[in-house]
Structures are given as C-alpha cells and as structure tokens.
Amino acid sequence: MNRTLNTCRRPFRKMHGLGNDFIIFDGRTDQLDLTEAQVRQLASRNRGIGCDQLITLWPSETADVFMRIQNADGSEVAACGNATRCVGDILLQELGRDRVTIETGAGLLTACRDGDLIRVDMGTPLLDWRDIPLAQDMDTADLDLSVGPLSHGVAVNMGNPHVVFFVPDVAAIVLETLGPEIENHPLFPERVNVSIVEDRGDGHLRHRVWERGAGITEACGSAACATVVAASLRGLVDRKAIIDLDGGTLHMAWDADNHVQMTGAVSYVYEGQIDLGSLA
C-alpha cells in the first residue's frame, strides 16, 4: 500500500531487549506501511540502520496500540516478546499509566513495570500439533525428529512456532548450521524458531536461539516463553525459570492461569531520522 513513503525524514527509535534489537516507527497517525524489500534494506547492518526486527506502531480499536512485527528478511510475524517489552516501556512513559495493552497478530498482550524491569503477559501456550503447526500428527512434547545431535524436541506456539531441544552443553552445538536446517525442515510448514537449552539446575536454564527470518539473535522473548513451558513439561523446572540468553537474563513464569509471564530489561540506543522515500 505504501501510503506514506514521501521524501520527508521519518523519526525512529532504536531499542533492544537483551541485545535483540529493533527499529521502531510510529505509524499511528498515518498507518505507515513498509514493504518487505524496504524492511530488508532498513534492517541491513551494512547498508541500513540494522536490526533483528522492524516494529511499526499502528492505531488499535481494542488496545493502546497495534504492534506490527517484521523480521530482518521482511517476513511478518505475530509475536515478539522483547519488542513487546520495548513498546510497553514507550507506552507506559507516554500514557503515564501502570499498565498498557498491546495488540499483536497473536492477540492482546499487557505490559507493566516490575521495578526497573518490564513484565509482559505473553498469553497462553498452544501445544496441539495443529496449532504449532506441524505437517503431521505428532506428540509435541516429544517430537519424532532428529537433526545431527538434536532430537526429542518440544514444540510450542507462543504466537509463533518454536521447537526447543535440551542438550548437555549449548556451547557444543553449531547453531549456525543446525538452526537454518531445522527452521526450514518439512515438519514445520510455517518454518520455526529453534532453541537449544542446557539445564544448569535450581531453575536456571542456559538458552541460545536461531530466530525464524532473523538467524541467531542475542535473545528472543517468545522463545524464552516456549522454553519455560517445554522445561516444565519435561519436569526440569516447576513452572518458573531464570533463563540466561546470549544477551542477558529473563525471568519467566508459567502461571496458574496458563499464561506465560516474561520479565526483563529494555534499553534505548538512540533516536534518529531517515528519508524513507530514498528506499528502493
């Protein structure tokens, strides 16, 4: 549609949640609509601003804002936990309230302050094979899938599809090779986010992630949600976990109401302007 790609310089924010970084545009007044090609150019770390995901804020009839999420490859996704915390912090400051509601493709999410951190209710995990989705009927708590040293994964949908593999040592897994192979495996018709997780005891989990459409990122909030669910199903944690990612720590809880709560930091990097009319 590209209703607003004129030659005016457009303000944006650069933010990150534990190193998972975002370009955030405010399109609430003009419904800014970027194409996949434009997103790829903006997301390029050599020729653009650089990001894992590009976020556009749109007006919402049911929430304080609608959050559109596009991966670095231009593909659109329904959920991003770290971006939700960043947008939550923007709205909490902007509106001066204790709690805000964010509409996403995965549904309505709420964000609030928890000390210096932001807590987001990420909603309910989906565990039926049709909801992941998988290409065939399979036990999502113990997938009949082996790729190299990875096997017996757990599939969870947290607004987007995830598969979680538990391993003795995350450092021994060549995620750069195995991540894209599993992301594009025929078992996952919509592709999949790939997590490798090491149980370090006492509710601590070491986590690395290959994100669908973005590659290895320093953190992925929805993957951390899938991980606390998967670890709970395997009996490794009691529905709570401290998850250490490449970029920092998230505090996770799968509560009695079947909602996953995610608490973590957000960071502002800088604000800038860019001429969107100059993009291809």
From TrEMBL:
The keyword Amino-acid biosynthesis applies. GO terms for biological process: lysine biosynthetic process via diaminopimelate. It comes from the Bacteria. Its EC number is 5.1.1.7. One of its GO terms (cellular component) is cytosol. This is Diaminopimelate epimerase. The active site is at C80, C220. HAMAP family: DAP_epimerase. Keywords: Amino-acid biosynthesis, Cytoplasm, Isomerase, Lysine biosynthesis. The record marks H162, E211 as: Could be important to modulate the pK values of the two catalytic cysteine residues. It comes from Paremcibacter congregatus. The lineage of its organism: Bacteria, Pseudomonadati, Pseudomonadota, Alphaproteobacteria, Emcibacterales.
